Structures are given as C-alpha cells and as structure tokens.
Amino acid sequence: MNRLFAAATCLAALSVLPAVAADPDPKNWDAVIEAARGQTVYFNAWGGSPNINSYIEWTAGELEKRYSVELVHVKLDDTANAVATVVAEKAAGRDDDGTIDLIWINGENFASMKEQSLLFAPGWAEDLPNWRFVDFETQTTIRTDFTVPVEGLESPWGMTKLVFFHDEANTPTDTLPQSADELLQWARQHPGRFSYPQPPDFIGSSFVKQVLSEKVADRAVLLDPVDEASFDAVAAPVFEYLDELHPLMWRQGRAYPQNYPAMKQLLADNEVDIIFAFNPAEASSAIANGELPDTVRSFTFPGGTLANTHFVSIPYNSSAKEAALVTADFLISPEAQARKQDPTVWGDPTVLAMNKLDADDRARFDALDLGIATLAPDELGPALDEPHPSWMDRIEDEWRRRYGVAN
Amino acid sequence: MNGLTLDAITIALGQRPLLAISARVAPGETLTVMGASGSGKSTLLAYIGGFLAAEFSASGRVYSGDAEITSLPAEDRHAGLLFQDPLLFPHMSVAGNVAFALPANIKGRAARLEQAAAALADVGLADYGDGDPATLSGGQKARVALARTLVSEPRMMLLDEPFSKLDAGLRAQIRDLVFAKARAAMLPVILVTHDEADARAAGGPVVTIGEDA
Amino acid sequence: MIQPRDGVARIARLGPPLTVAILAGPILAGLAGTILPAFGYLPALGGARLTTDAFATLFAMPGIARSATLSLTTGLVSSGISLLLVMLFVAGWAGTRSFSRVQSMISPLLSVPHAAAAFGFAFLIAPSGLLARLVSPGLTGWTRPPDLLVLNDPAGLALIAGLVVKEVPFLLLVTLAALPQIRLTETRALAAALGYGRIAGFLYLAWPAIYRQIRLAVFAVVAFAASVVDVAIILGPNIPATLAVRLVGWMNDQNLSMRFVAAAGALLQLVVVLTALGLWIVVERAFARLREALCARGTRLRRDAGLRHASLGLMTLSGGIVLAGLVALGLWSVAGLWPFPQPLPSTFMLQPWMETLPRVAGPLATTLAAATLSTLIAILLTLLCLLRERDTGRTGGRKALAFIYLPLIVPQVAFLFGLQFLFLSVGFVASFSGLVLAHLIFVLPYVFLSLSDPWRAFDRRYEAVAAGLGKRRWRTLLAIRLPMLARPILTAAAVGFAVSVGQYLPTLLIGAGRLPTITTEAVALASGGARRTIGIYAFLQMLLPAIGFAIAIALPALLFRHRRAMQS
User: Which of residues 217-256 of C touch A (CB under 8 A)?
Assistant: First the structure.
C-alpha cells in the first residue's frame, strides 16, 4: 500500500515537471544533426517486399556514412502492430524510451495515432530542410492524408495510385475494362478470372473504395465522416455491385488472396487475368525480378483511380527523435527519392516537384527508365481523393457482415 | 574385521508390510535370504545399502561392526553390490570400470590403472583391460563386476541373485569365485536368492521371508 | 526415511519451484493481462470501468459462432485423424523394417516449421500447384489452372490436411518414446498365439498403456490445432477464418478499441480449447468403451492386412507430402519465372540467395544465442527437477507435470499479449533476457518431456553400485548417469533448440521487433507472399534444428565410438 502511494506521488510530481529531455527543434537543423550522431533509429516498416527491404538497407548505409546514424529496419507484417506497440508502451507509462523511432504509415493508422496523440509534435515535417523540394502544391494528398489534415505530423515518402495489371499474352489490351462497371461486364464474360484481397487488407479495401468512389451519387459526401443515417442509401450501389461481382470472381468469391503479393502470385500462376496495385511501377519491378512474365502491362480507368501518399512518422515516445528527423529528411532528398523511383530498385513515385529541383537532381530522375510495364505520369489518369478514414472502417464492417461469412 | 547386524528391520510399501528381519552376519559368513519374487527381498538390500526408493517406508537399524550406518548416505556405507546383471558402466573401458571403483587415496593415473590391471588379473582377465565391456561374455562380465566391487574395499557384500542369469556350468564357477573372494576378504555377505543351490553353496544360515499370503 | 543432505539434493530442491515459477508465473500473469481488458479495463485506451461491452461486441461479430466452431472442429478432427493414423500404423507395423523406414523418413520432419510445411503443402495441392503441373496439360488438358476451391475451403478440409501432416511426426515420436514401456515382441507373440490380428492384439494389450503415457502430449496437439494461427492463415477458410486468425486480426486492427474485443476473443479461444479438450475426453472414453466391448466379445480382426497397408500408405503419403512441399519450396528459392503448367521453372536464378544471405547474419546470431541459452537453462532446470523427483518419490512429479504442460495447452494468444504488457511495465520488452525467458516458457516443457522418460528409465542400480563403491552423489551424477544419458540429454537439447528456433509470436511480442530471428523474418516475408524468399528462410529455419539433431546423434557416436552398448 505504502509503495503504491509512493509511486503515485512520484508520478504526480513528474507530471508537473517540464519534460526532462527537451524535444528537438528541426528549425535548428545543425543541432539536430549533432544530437543525432551515434543514435539508433528503429524504423518499423512493412517487411514483405525484398525490393523495399533492400532499399531501406541502402538508406541505412548512407545514413551511417553521412550522419553516423544507425538505421535498423524492424520488419513488420502489418503496420498496425507498430501502432499497437506504441499504445502498449503508453499504457505502461513508457513515455520517453519507446522502442519505435520511425513508422511507415498513412491512412487509418495515421488517423488513429493522431487521434490518440501518439505522434511527435506537429509541424516538424514541414521544417525539414528538404521539404523545400516537396510537391505539396499540386499533390494535395501530401498535406491531407485520407482527408485528415497532416499538420506536419508525418513526412511524405512516396506517391501511390491505383493501377491495374494484365498479361498481354492472355488478355488483349482492347478488351480491358475502363471503369468499375466495365470490370463487372468483363467478369461476366470471364468468370473466375478476377479477385481482390479480402478486406480489411489495405489493397482489398482500396478496391472497394474505388468502386464506392465510382458508384456513389455524390462523391463529395465521401470527404466527410460517415453519416450513419444516410450510410445505407449512399453505399447501396457498392453492395449491389459486389453482390453481382462475387459469384463471377475467382473461386466464386468463396476464397480470397490474402494481400497484394498473393494476388500477384495468382497472376503469375495464371489463375487470374487482372490484378491491381497501389504502385504504378510494381509490374515493371516484378518483371525485373522474374516474378511476372514480361508480357504484363499496366492500365488505369480514364475516369480516375484512387491516389494517396505514404509517409513516415515519429512516435511521441521515440528515444532517438533527432536521428529519426535526420532519416525522414534524408528520405525526401532528391538522391534518395530518385533511387526509390528506379523500377530496378523499388519504383515508388517521388513526392518531389521536378520544377523545384536544380538541373543535376532533375537529371537523376530524367535518367530513370521507368520500365516496360510502367505508365508515364501523364498516362496515369485523374486521381480520385481517398474518402475519409471512417468510410474505410464502415465499409469494412459492412463487408464483413455481408460477405465475411459464406452461406 | 566387522560383522553386519540387522536390528529389527521392517519394510513396507504404503500400508502393505513387506518384511521384518533381525540378524547378525559374522565376517566371512554369508546370510542367505530366500523369498518368492515380489516378497521384497531386494528392498532389504536397498535398505542396508542406503538406496531404498522414496516410496518405501522402513524402520530398524543397521550396524557395520559397532558403527550404526542406518542414517549414513549410501556412499559412506561401503556396501559392495552385485546384481543379476553385471551393470558394467558401458561408457568406460573394462579397466576404467575397475579403476573407477578404487578408493580416492590411491593417487595418480598410472598407479590406479596398475591396480585395476592387477585386480583384473586376479579374476583371470589380465588382457582385457582396454576392451569394451559390451564385447565380454556373460561370465567375463560377472568377473569384472566382482573385481570392481573388491577393489573398492567394501565393508560388506550385498548379493541380489547375482548368478541367476548365468548358465548352469558358469554359474557354479562364478559362485565359487565370489564366495571364495568374500571369505578371503573376511566380508560379511547377504545373499538374496530363490535358488536352493545358491543357498547351499553359500553355506551359511538361511532365512525365508514374505511367505506367500 | 533418509533425506539426502548432500549438495546435489540441496541444489535439486530449487528445481521444481523455479520451474513452476518460470512456467506458471508468466502464463497466469499473462492471462490476467488478457482478462482485464476483456472486461474493459485498460486505462491507456480509456477503459477504466469493468464492463462486458467487449463480449457484447465480440458475440455480435458476423460469423463468430462459425469461426469458433471451425477452430473446434478443425482442431478435433485433425488431431483425431493424426492420432488414429499413428495408432494404426504403430499397431500394424511397430518392430518391422517398414516401420523403421517410415520412422526415419518422418522423424526429421518434426523440425520443419509449421509455416514452411504449410506453404509447401499449399504449393503442392493448389490448382496451379506442383501436382497439377505434373499432370497438365497431358492428363487434364488444363493449360490454365482450373478454378477449383482446393485451398482455403470454407469447411477447413485443407487446413485439417495440413495440420495432420505436421502433427503425425510429433505423435509418432511421442508414441515411439512410450513404446519401450511395453514388451512389444512378447505382446505381439502372445496376441498372435491367441489368434488376434496384429492391430487388434496391439490395441487390446499395448495401446492403453501407451496412451496413458502420451495422453498429455495428445492434449497439447488438440490445444495447438484448435488455436493455430500461421497454418490457418495459409490453408484455412477465409469467410470466415478460424477464431485464432480473426483474433490476431483484431489485435492488429487500426481501430484501437478492437483490443478489448481481441482480449475477449482470446478468452473465447481459451474456452474453445477447453471445450475441445472436454470433447476429446468424451471421445477417448467412447473409444475405450468400444475397445473394451470388442475385446470382451473376443473380436479378433484377423483380416487386418487392408487396414495395415492403408495405414502404412497414409503414413508414407503424409511424410511424402511434407517432403515434396519442401522440395517445391527449395525449387522456388532458385526459380526465375515459373508459369503454369510448366513442371519446372523456365529460368533459375541465385539472386534471391545472394541478396538474402548477407542479411541473415544478425537474425541468425539472435536465433542461435536465444536458442542456445534457453535450451541450456531448460536442460539445467529439467535435470534439477528430475534429480529432485528421486528424492521425493514420483507423486510430486505427476502434479508438476500439469504445470509443465500448461504452456502447451493454454493458447499462446490468450496470454502472450498480457505478458507483453507485463514485460513492458518492468522494462523487460525488447531485452535479450526477456526474449530468452519467453522462449524458455515453451522450450522447457519440450525438454522436460523428451528427457524425463529416458531419465526415469535409467537403471538406478548403476547408481547403487557406484554409491556402494563409495562414490559421492555428484561424482556418480557426473561420471555415471550424465555420460550414460548423453544421447537422450543431447536429443532433448536438440528438441529444445528446435522449439526455440520455431517461436514466432513470443519473439515478435517480447522482442518488440528489435530482436528479429530467422522465424520472425520468415513470417514477415511470408506476409509478402514472396515464394522465393520464403523458400530461403524456410530452408534456414529447417537447417538450424537439423544441425542440432545431427550433433545430438554424431557427438555421442564419436565420443563413445569404441563402446558398443552406447551406440544405440
């Protein structure tokens, strides 16, 4: 009893004291670099792709050389695990020596961490030295992550856009669907040759959101949080669509690929004809890696497909915030961004604006061969805004209720 | 020389009494304990030797000479044991088995091996020291077991049907060897057996325990 | 009664309390850490009151009853089939040359990680898998894979099959360990003389004693199968998935309030496991009745050749499936493009190996260090417990056995999340000692179980002889018992090592991702479905335990090469 009381007193005393270790100020960048020296950054990032893992490894080597920062890639199978870790640490009162220093994040995970105040101070992202190259004016998703204001709580890393892939050898280009409705029509003619990862897989849920964005009467309602009263009416066309699509899908919708890589394997194994990804260069790099045949090509819908940005963010309790800032800044350096866009490395589109770069840096990007299966930026079609994160949650719940249990 | 005294020993397994015995065995004398299998005659040796399993309960005292050894740990009782099986340590050489048994006061590897070799020669196995115990015949194993026991300078010998697995010709030979050596060393011996011939060869008093209920 | 007062006995006295503390402490504390949030208490997430809301949400989840039922049925059916198969096989073939052949084929499969076996199996039987490729288009006319629901079927048949092929090696090995308890040759001869078929004779005369020995291990199999996560993700149904799979999904849900539901789900999982065990006991009784009835009627089942050969065939098939799956994974690790229906990759490349190998050094070191340390501690504690058992008689040991099996029967998900929370509070998460402790919880039971039978079977007259020769107990221990038991001790160590290498969830949660091992890396990569890299890591994951077992066999053989009795 006495010990409990003593502990409570200590806690109370601590809470009125100012934070012991002063948080870094990115405006004073030299001090940040100095403090970062010798720190270790535990970067929690999805580890399911050997390409991306190699890229992060290269980053680690450069950071060590340039800033004496050690970067450790903590390979996750689901980003939500990292969110869970920070939650558990907060619960356990581990407020200044957390195990995570940097998270690869966007969308719901960001919204959730922002809402729970699990992130490092607002504004830091736009104070990074390399922010001056970032294309936030034309790429609106850099400052608005799934309709949630970013407020400098996360730093952009790459751009994503929903792109479809097919194998020219099996599916001639002129037969390809040009919209969600045409996709349904195509599935009627080619039963069993399309599928999507089972929500709540991120890519699978994104497909459902694409259908939602196309089928909803007024797209503007998607930018606001879900209104329960009107949800059924607004979402009705989506579920009519899926009701019709599912029996025409691979395995009649009784089984689903678990995620994008599993779906990619289905295309490689010739089990399905059309797949999709959030990275326009994904098909080219898969061809380069011998994962897909070199007859695979990309296409999008002329009416537009979902687009968003992925970010890195720093948990409030990181024990190496300076080094995390240095890492985030390095990730948006023209050199790191150009290398990332190289399809033989990763192929992830840059967040930088070409017109903000000097001639040398621009040349790095111009020199890239985007690959045979990658659409040029002007072929990618219009970008559809991501709905508010609450739509994803609600749609996933509804999906589970309707399709999560087979009859 | 020390005799062996058993003073009002009783052994029970749970609530079931197994045996009760009092006896005095003079140096060089053999007491033969007979009883059907399951009568608990082996537990008597375990009690005297100090390795009775925890599930048995027992009372009574054991004296070696004038010293009571009832509460001593097994290793301080110096009871030379011979079982049905020769129980040679399979991971040691023949000589290694014997050398292991030598008392600690014999120092030095060479001295110990020499003593072991002498003990083996004494039981007619002079050339077998380096061999693998597993390659010996049944009779040879029994001799090694005997040599091993004798070099440890025991104060008594406890024999648990040690001849029962030997074939008839060999049996008499080994039996005579064991009793001769025990007599020569003036050791008190307790022999547990159900073989009348063993009892006759032992020549000493015979008690029968655990009559079939 | 003489209470031993020597040093060995004094130290051994520490064994059982330490072991119980290491096994039961974290599990009970972890369960508490799961129960509290299940009833709404987790202040960090704003849960300060006790409520049953989480259970209300849980039971309102679509298909939750179906998921729980699936866990229950797949767990029971796969365990039932595995045990039946092993029982019939041992009954029909034990002591024959076919038996040793199958045994030597199946035993090494014990060290194959579950996820790797499941991946291999999936690639074998999928419509685009190796089997279909071998007969296509020649026999089937398929130029594209047929749209057949072979994997992830709603009834969980693929999951059951995948579990069976992985449970069979384990059950076979525990049965083999129990076999010396019966006099096989005499029993066989007796049954044959009385005119009983081989299987019937074995079942009437030998099986009850064997089953008594392996019963807890069988319970562990039932509990594992009813709560398995990785195999169920790969082979199990999608709509809905089994309870354990959905549970882990809720734990990872971005909506953090789902943690409460996940905790409630973890308790439901515990109930599912207990129900499975309860039903298993009912089936056990029914089977025993049936056997007794048949026996009482003198049913001799003399014409059991068909059944015997079926069991041999199925055992061979079960081992063959895992082996073929591993070969397929191995092929994938060097495959370039490999389109359907080609039976072999059209190009080969070593690039994935070249890229992966430099990367494994760190995880490999962590894996080796954690496995070595947890195994050493487990061996030490096991030896102390077994030494203590001798001083107290065996009654104490029986009760302790329940604790030993606790980590194998309580589903991992039910207590690991609570345990992680506990470790966090004391700053133990992501520390190497925390990782070793977490591994020890799972290594210790397996080490104890592999070592206790040979230890107890040791002929204690050897020790009596040594004591009679005047040797102190510690000297007898070091010079006689330990060397004579070198082989089983090393085998137990190899088993413990393999168990540690295979740990996924404890490593992930307690290591907080900062202490990656070969297995956590493999599962993270598996989430990306990259078959090549999975092949490489699965290979490494198997290699380590295989090296362990090789040492356990080679070292005593080398040390005692001139001692014939130590060779078997």
Answer: 233, 237-240, 249, 251-256
DSSP one-letter code for B92: S
* CA gap C278, A202 in Å, rounded: 39
Give the C-alpha separation, C527 to A48, whole Å: 5
Q: Tell me the C-alpha distance between A108 and A390, whole Å.
A: 8
Domains of chain C, each with CATH number or no CATH: 1-48+350-568 (1.10.3720.10), 63-346 (1.10.3720.10)
Contact C256 A42 (CB under 8 A): no
B196 Cβ contact list (under 8 Å, min separation 6): none
Select from B89, B101, B154 the Cβ nearest to the Cβ of C462. B89
Lowest mean pLDDT among C27-31, C356-360, C437-441: C356-360
Of C467, C479, C564, the CB nearest to B51: C467
Chains that touch A (3 or more CB pairs under 8 A): C
Domains of chain A: 23-158+310-374 (3.40.190.10), 163-307+383-403 (3.40.190.10)
CB A237 within 8 Å of CB A295: no
Q: Give the largest Cα separation in chain B, rounded.
A: 55
Q: What is the DSSP string of A100-132?
A: -SEEEE-HHHHHHHHHTT-B--TTHHHHSGGGG
Which chain A residues touch C339 with a CB distance below 8 Å?
A: 268-270, 293
The count of other CB atoms within 10 Å of the CB of residue C298 is 11
Is the CB of residue B152 less than 8 Å away from at least one CB of chain C? Answer: yes
> Which of C388, C390, C469 would you mutate first to test chain B, the one with the most B CBs within 10 A?
C469
Q: Looking at residue A127, what is its pLDDT?
A: 95
Q: What is the pTM of this model?
A: 0.80
Do residues A59 and A330 touch, judged by C-beta distance below 8 A?
yes
Contact of C137 with chain A, judged by CB distance below 8 Å, is answered with no
Calpha distance C152→C377 (Å, rounded): 40
Distance CA C511, CA C509 (A): 6
Contact C254 A261 (CB under 8 A): no
Q: What is the pLDDT of residues B79-104, one digit of tens each?
A: 888 888 888 888 888 888 888 888 88
Specify the pLDDT at position B213: 34
> Element (H or E) spanning A205, and its range?
helix A202-215
For residues C520-538, average pLDDT: 73
What values do phi and psi take at C153, rounded to 5?
-70, 145
* Distances, alpha carbon B140 to alpha carbons B130, B180, C136, in Å: 14, 17, 68
Torsion of Cα atoms, A159 then A161 then A167 then A168, to 10° = -100
In chain C, the percentage of residues whose pLDDT exceeds 90 is: 24
Chain-chain contact of A74 with C153 (C-beta, under 8 angstroms):
no
Tell me the β-bridge partners of B189.
Answer: B30, B157
C contacts of A315 (beta carbons < 8 Å): none
Query: B10 CB near a chain C CB, below 8 Å?
Result: no
- Which residue would you say has higher pLDDT here, B29 or C86? C86
Q: What percent of chain C has pLDDT over 70?
A: 93
User: How confident is residue A68, by pLDDT bands cut at 50, 70 and 90?
Assistant: very high
Q: Which residues in C lie closer than 8 A to residue B103 (C-beta atoms)?
A: 470
CB atoms C464 and B75 under 8 Å = no
d(CA C247, CA C203): 40
Among B45, B51, B115, B130, pick the best mutation site for testing chain C contact (most C Cβ within 10 A).
Answer: B51
pLDDT class of A281 with cuts at 50, 70, 90: confident
End-to-end CA distance of chain B: give it in Å, rounded: 39
Q: Which CATH superfamily is domain B4-208 in?
A: P-loop containing nucleotide triphosphate hydrolases (3.40.50.300)
